[in-house]
Amino acid sequence: MSRSLNTLAALFVIALALPAIAQTKPAAHKPFGFGTAATKEQIAGWNIDVRGPDGAGLPPGKGTVADGEQLFMDQCSACHGEFAEGAGRYPELIGGRGTLNSNDPRKTVESYWPYAPTLYDYIRRAMPFGAPQSLTDDQVYSIVAWLLNQANVWPEDKTLDAAGLRQVKMPNRDGFLAGDPRPDVKPDTCMTNCRKTPPKITSDLAARLGVTPTQKTAD
Q: Where does the UniProt annotation place the signal sequence (predicted)?
């Protein structure tokens, strides 16, 4: 009984204090008084994304197909196979052209990705799987050069840099629709009285299966 009374008393004190607590909001323009502003160097360490369509954010550097082949064998082949064909349950990266409209579509870098700089961005930020961001910028350029060579869109004897990567046209560049076709994001989508012609019954399958009555029945 004593413990219950103490609990009730504590709740009563808190209830009395709530209005005063609600009125002591910190001013929006004042700092909280802890932490420090991030420096340009600290921000630069996180600001490493590369934009796909125009390659904005690509760093200086260069790489070769020959160097990329060795790097891929050492850093990537355990998951993606020696020829980027995929290993185990890890995805394949090369091949699959012409399969996207088939019963067995294969979404690879070669068959699906529209922009080459995206490949650099992903490898630089997330690969290799066990040690992301451990590759140098030149090493990433080399791996990308080898993969693009495997996809037959970059010559074996040509050095790859930011300017060259921006010029690469991926095989499926034109395989995407312009805009978002989903009706919930189109402001001009018709919502009422949209039918131009009356509906037409093309089958009486439901009636023949007995799941829809052919005439009204009395209750």
A: 1-22
Cis ω before 128 (30° cut-off from 0): yes
Please choose, from the candidates 12, 172, 141, the residue with its C-alpha nearest in 3D space to the C-alpha of residue 66.
141
pLDDT at 161: 98
CA dihedral (107, 57, 124, 73) positive or negative: positive
Assign residue 100 the CATH number of its domain. Answer: 1.10.760.10
Tokens of 84: 């980027």
Instruction: Please answer whether residues 135 and 127 qualify as being in contact, where contact means their C-beta atoms are separated by less than 8 angstroms.
Output: yes
Print the domain residue range for 80.
Answer: 65-167
Count of C-beta atoms within a 10 Å radius of residue 186: 11
With respect to residue 151, please indicate whether it lies within any of the assigned structural domains: yes
pLDDT digits (tens, 9 = 90+) for 144-191: 999 999 999 999 999 999 999 999 999 999 998 877 777 677 666 677
